[in-house]
Design goal:
This protein is α/β, with parallel strands linked by helices. Helices cover 30% and strands 18% of the residues. The strands form 3 sheets. It has a 6-stranded mixed sheet with strand order 3-4-6-5-7-10, with helices on both faces. It has a two-stranded antiparallel ribbon with strand order 1-2.
Amino acid sequence: MHQPLFSLRFAPLTGLVFVLIFGVSCAAGDGDAGPAGPSSPAGETQNQTGASEAGFNADSAYAYVERQVDFGPRVPGTEAHRACGDWMVRRLEGWAATVEEQTGTVEAWDGTELPMRNIMARFNPDAAKRILLCAHWDTRPVADEDNERTDEPIPGANDGGSGVGVLMEIARQLAARPVDYGVDLVFFDVEDYGNSEVPDSYCLGSQEWAKRAKAEGYRAEYGILLDMVGARGAYFYREGISMHFAPSVVAKVWEAAAEQGKRSWFVFNEAPYPPLTDDHLYVNRIAGIPTIDIIQYDPDNKRGFGDFWHTHDDNMGIIDPRTLGAVGETLMAVLREEAGA
């Protein structure tokens, strides 16, 4: 018998009645991860480099997810976490103009002191106009939704690993096809070490990043958060906090998805469930950057985020390059639109 998926809390948020408290996660492996993984999805048009016409290689993104999972669970303070972070920094340094690390120590809900390592890769760092893309790269320290080995960490292929994989491929594409404005990729740490009964215990890395961003005067036109964007059969509703803080950004992204033929993944309905607390809440509320969340959620599924959510089944077996491609191609279309704005 499983524990309840989430707890509902009354959390006034300027027009939002309640917030769904939950947690999410990431993964890793060493070496270069170029175009690799399963063959390209049927029907996708490929150019000579293996990328689709939208300028995104789903096989490459798949390989980046697999690299993360190969490291093992990326729980803060573990060797797998350190090694994965080192690998990410090495790869990003080969593509971005600058790579910055924001480190420190945060206290988890149970009093555990955890090392925090937010990673930020910047393209055109001197440009005034900036777009923020983000995901979290740590993984859940316990399999609290599983039937066995509940005290062991999960692989985190989708919950964390998928968003990172998509952004790593976007970084590779931006290096090959530069844009004339600024793009910042931020990989948040210590997202998934929370407790649904303790307010603000998830998303510790993004809370710290948002505080520092506000203090340093960092600005972006808008932000897009990716979380659990790689599972087979996933689809993405227009999530409540996203609609509250940044409805125009939601419209921009979902329209781009439709233009790319991705309506099978991007549902043109407002989410039939309460708003989801994720890293984007703190980027909006603290840093003041209008930010949306692309996140899998199925209100008809007993776990909401998929049968594999917070279990040991969150492994490469549930990752589909077509889903990664749907998200990645949509974001590349948004970035191309910004270039022509």
